[in-house]
Each structure stands twice: as C-alpha cells, then as structure tokens.
Amino acid sequence: MPVINSQGQITFPSEWKKFMGGIKVGEYIYYYIQQSEQKIIISKNCVTFDARAPFLKNNLITIPHNIRKVCNLQNGDRLTFTYDLIKDTVYIMKAQDTFECEICNEEGNLQGYPCIVCEGKGRFKLETWSNELTRLFRMGYKYGINISIINTNTIHLPDNEVANIFPVIQIESSNFPIEVLEKFQDYYQKRAIRVRGEEESQDF
Ligand SMILES: [Zn+2]
Predict the structure, then answer these.
(1) Nearest alpha-carbon partner for 96 in 124, 70, 62
(2) Is the separation of the CB atoms in 137 and 189 below 8 Å?
(3) Among 40, 52, 133, 159, which residue has the least CB neighbours within 10 Å?
C-alpha cells in the first residue's frame, strides 16, 4: 500500500500503472475529488479535474498540494487504489484502519440493540487495549451497562505453583437481552485473553 512521503509523493503501484494502460514519465495524471464519497478519481485523460501532476521517474508521483489539503492527506498516510467497474474509473482514497464489526455483522446493532463494540457504526478502529476499555466503559455509561473487570494477575495453585490468568470481564445490564450481552462479553473476554497472550510472548 503506497505511503505518502514528506514531499507529498507516493510510489505508484506497478500493477495499477499496468491497469491504467501504462504511464510514461512526464505524462499527466489528473485528479478529481469526489468529496461526498471521500475518494479521488485518477485518470490519464480527465475532462474535469481539480489538479494534475506529471508522472515522475522511478514510478513516483506527487499528489498535488490542493488535493492533499482538501482530502487531509499527510506524510505517512497510506492510500488504497480501487477500480469502479460501473463508472470505469480508478480512484484512490486514504486507507482507514477500520475493520468490519463481526459482533453485529456490520449492522451497528444486534436485535435492535446498539452494538457497543463498534459504537453502532458497524466498523471499528483497532485500538490499544486500554483505549478499547475506555470505549467500553464510555458505552457502558451511555447505555446503562455494568462492566466489571476482575483483574486477577496471578493465582496460587497447590504446591506453591503460580499461574498467570487473564482478567475476567463481566458485562451486565437489564437494558439488554442476555444473548446480546453474552456476545459483547465474549468479544471483550477473547480480546483480554489475546492481549495477555501478547504481553506474555513479549516477555520471552
Ligand atoms: Zn458492531
């Protein structure tokens, strides 16, 4: 996935260069912003365009300054290339680190109850565990959900053995059906186990 450098340039992916019928050095690429859909149409022959930039050596191209400004593209941002079959256009857009919410199947709700994992959006950003917990507590406060995290770091087993266990997450509310709460709890519990697993693998 191409990354915008400090000069506002990207390395044009060779497969997309081929897809667009090849692009010669010095040939113009035209940019047209579709603001409603947050995407930028790129073309070798655009009738209407917002900006254009010549194709540079080494497959480099500068995303014109006004395009970067309007689309809030900055150094380090990644771009995705897509082809719209119906409109027969290639467009680029800022890659978002969002994922489909599997808890609600991207619906944003379960049986009509808001999905607290994605905040009802159907997609969510993968965040650090502490940020995710903050979101969980915020959602709990908003929807009247009781969240308890029983953080038992170590337990003592017989024969003086010590075992690390993960935090136990409990999600309770009288505003949601049990089966919906179970899905939330399951997600956060698995996430907690994964986080603990990652922490442990870092230790070794
Ligand atoms: Zn969801």
Answers:
(1) 124
(2) no
(3) 159
ipTM exceeds 0.90: yes
**Both tokens assigned to 90:** 């290639």
Task: Identify the pLDDT of residue 115.
Answer: 96
Q: What are phi and psi of 154, to 5 degrees?
A: -135, 145
Ion ligand 1: residues, Cβ under 5 Å:
101, 103-104, 115, 117-118
**Residue that finishes a domain, picked among 77, 94, 111:** 94
196 C-alpha to ligand 1 centroid (Å):
23
Residues 159 and 146 in one domain: yes
Q: Are residues 124 and 192 in the same domain?
A: yes
Distance (angstroms) between ligand 1 centre and the Cα of 120 equals 6
The Å distance, Cα 195 to ligand 1 centre, comes to: 20
What's the gap in Å between 77 CA and the centre of ligand 1? Answer: 26
107's tokens? 């619906």
Under 8 Å CB-to-CB from 78, ≥6 apart: which residues? Answer: 1, 2, 3, 4, 94, 95
